[in-house]
Design goal:
about 120 residues; 6 helices; about 85% helix; about 0% strand
Length: about 120
């Protein structure tokens, strides 16, 4: 049913409508994530990802030291360090999500603007 409906909609579109649809097509999750590394604020994403990667590496190292520690106090020191670093790395990674959502909203706004512009041009 939906395939037939999609085909009917596609046939009803004009060439300009097809161009708008292709120019503003929905992007996949990985494409949206990789888009964060470009543009005016791309350098911020690079810094966040480098710091996040270093923190994750340190968390893994502290976790290893935690599991190999024989003394309880030493294990507690390494375990708390590992947990804190892992949580900080997760928070840094998740701090990029609002920007991804904002980019999706801006893409849809551009789509509406383009649709309005082409509609005005037809009149």
């Amino acid at each position: 049913m939906t395939d037939r409906l999609d085909r009917l909609i596609e046939e009803a579109l004009t060439e300009e409508d097809r161009m708008i649809r292709e120019a503003t097509a929905e992007r996949g999750w990985f494409a949206l994530g990789l888009d964060q590394f470009r543009g005016k604020l791309g350098w911020v994403t690079w810094v966040v990802m480098i710091v996040q990667t270093v923190m994750f590496g340190l968390a893994v190292w502290c976790g290893y030291e935690f599991y190999t520690a024989t003394d309880v106090l030493v294990a507690l020191k390494w375990g708390l360090s590992a947990a804190t670093l892992a949580l900080m790395a997760i928070v840094l990674k998740l701090s990029l999500m609002p920007q991804i959502q904002a980019d999706r909203v801006l893409r849809e706004l551009r789509r509406v603007e383009l649709m309005l512009a082409t509609r005005d041009a037809r009149k």
